[in-house]
C-alpha cells in the first residue's frame, strides 16, 4: 500500500487514514494526549496507533472517558467483537458486514469509536474493516446528484436482537458537527435471505424508482476504491474512527480465521 511519512511518527495511508507509531511514546494510550489523537483522527478520519500495550477492559473504559461521554449498552461500554458459535446477529458471523454508521439506533450518535485488537486474523484471513469517506464522495458529486440526494430521507427498521434495534428516520445528507463538511448517512439494506437480523429501508422524498436508482448509484460510489480504506488488523492495533465522516463495514473472514476486537463508542 502506498504511504508517506509526514513526521512525528505519523505515516499517511491511501486514500485516507494515518498510522501513528507510538512505540517510543510510552506503554499504552494514556501516554499520549487525547487532544493530539483527536486532532489526528479528525484530520485523517481513521487513526491507527501502533506499538502500545492493550488496556484491560475497565482501564480502557476509564481511558475513553477522557475523550467524552460513552455509549452504554446492556453489556456495558465495551463490545467484544468476536466470531460466535451460535450468532443471533451478522456482526458475530464470519460473513461480511455492509456499510453503516454506528449509533443509528442509539440515543446519541458517537463522534468516534475506538477499537483495540487483542487478536488479529492470520495474514490472508480476511475480516478487514473497510471505511468509506462520505465527504469525499460528496466532493466528487455533481450539483444535480446533490440536489437529488438532498431530497432523500430513509427509514431504517430492524428487530432488536442484539444490543440495538427499532426504527429511525434520517436524511441522506448531513453535516459533520466538527468540520462542517457535508456528509452522507447511509446504511446498506440487509436482506433477510442473506443476513441474520435483517435491516429494511424505506425511501421517502423521491419516487420509488428514483430512490432505488439513487441508492444503487450511491452504493457504487461508496464502494469505489478511490474513497475506501480497508484496514488489515495487526495484534495490538488501536484504531480511532471519525464516525460522522465515514461509513464502515467488514470483509468476510476466510478459512477458520479468528479475530478479537473490543470497541468503545464515544459521544
Ligand atoms: Fe459498526
Observed structural traits:
single chain; alpha+beta; Double-stranded beta-helix; 5 helices; binds fe (ii) ion
Task: Record the SSE blueprint.
Layout: E1 4-7, E2 10-12, E3 18-21, H1 34-44, E4 46-50, H2 57-65, E5 79-81, E6 97-100, E7 112-119, E8 129-133, H3 134-139, H4 143-151, E9 153-158, E10 166-171, E11 173-175, E12 182-184, E13 200-204, H5 208-222, E14 228-231, E15 238-242, E16 246-250, E17 260-266
Parallel strand pairs: 3-4
Antiparallel strand pairs: 1-2, 2-3, 4-15, 5-17, 6-16, 7-15, 7-17, 8-14, 8-16, 9-10, 9-13, 11-12
The protein binds fe (ii) ion.
CATH architecture term: 4-Layer Sandwich
Strand content: 25-35%
Q: Can you tell me the CATH superfamily?
A: Clavaminate synthase-like
Kindly report the CATH topology.
Answer: Double-stranded beta-helix
**Helix share of residues?**
10-25%
Terminal Cα separation, in Å?
32 Å
Shape: globular
Structural class: alpha+beta
Structure summary, number of beta strands:
17
Average pLDDT level: 94
Rg, Cα atoms, Å: 18 Å
Major β-sheet profile: 8 strands, mixed
**DSSP helical segment count:** 5
CATH class: Alpha Beta
Oligomer: single chain
Give me the strand/helix succession: EEEHEHEEEEHHEEEEEHEEEE
Chemical compounds bound to the protein: fe (ii) ion
Number of domains: 1
Cofactor: Fe(2+)
GO molecular function: dioxygenase activity
Keywords: Dioxygenase, Iron, Oxidoreductase
Organism: Streptomyces luteireticuli
Amino acid at each position: 500500500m502506498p504511504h508517506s511519512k509526514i513526521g512525528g511518527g505519523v505515516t499517511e495511508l491511501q486514500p485516507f487514514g494515518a498510522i501513528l507509531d507510538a512505540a517510543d511514546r510510552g506503554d499504552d494510550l494514556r501516554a499520549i494526549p487525547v487532544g493530539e489523537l483527536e486532532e489526528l483522527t479528525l484530520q485523517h478520519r481513521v487513526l491507527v496507533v501502533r506499538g502500545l500495550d492493550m488496556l484491560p477492559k475497565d482501564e480502557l473504559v476509564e481511558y475513553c472517558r477522557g475523550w467524552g461521554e460513552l455509549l452504554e449498552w446492556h453489556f456495558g461500554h465495551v463490545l467484544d467483537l468476536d466470531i460466535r458459535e451460535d450468532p443471533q446477529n451478522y456482526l458475530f458471523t464470519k460473513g461480511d458486514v455492509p456499510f453503516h454508521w454506528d449509533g443509528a439506533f442509539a440515543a446519541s450518535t458517537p463522534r468516534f469509536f475506538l477499537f483495540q485488537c487483542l487478536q488479529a486474523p492470520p495474514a490472508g484471513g480476511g475480516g478487514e474493516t473497510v471505511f468509506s469517506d462520505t465527504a469525499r464522495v460528496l466532493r466528487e458529486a455533481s450539483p444535480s446528484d446533490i440536489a437529488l440526494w438532498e431530497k432523500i430521507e430513509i427509514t431504517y427498521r430492524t428487530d432488536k436482537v442484539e444490543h440495538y434495534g427499532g426504527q429511525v428516520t434520517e436524511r441522506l445528507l448531513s453535516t459533520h458537527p466538527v468540520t462542517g463538511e457535508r456528509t452522507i448517512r447511509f446504511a446498506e439494506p440487509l436482506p433477510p435471505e442473506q443476513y441474520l437480523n435483517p435491516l429494511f429501508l424505506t425511501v421517502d422524498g423521491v419516487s420509488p424508482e428514483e430512490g432505488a436508482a439513487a441508492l444503487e448509484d450511491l452504493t457504487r460510489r461508496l464502494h469505489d476504491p478511490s474513497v475506501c480504506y480497508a484496514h488489515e488488523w495487526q495484534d495490538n492495533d488501536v484504531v480511532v474512527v471519525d464516525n460522522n465522516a465515514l461509513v464502515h463495514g467488514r470483509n468476510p473472514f476466510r478459512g477458520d480465521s479468528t479475530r478479537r476486537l473490543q470497541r468503545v463508542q464515544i459521544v
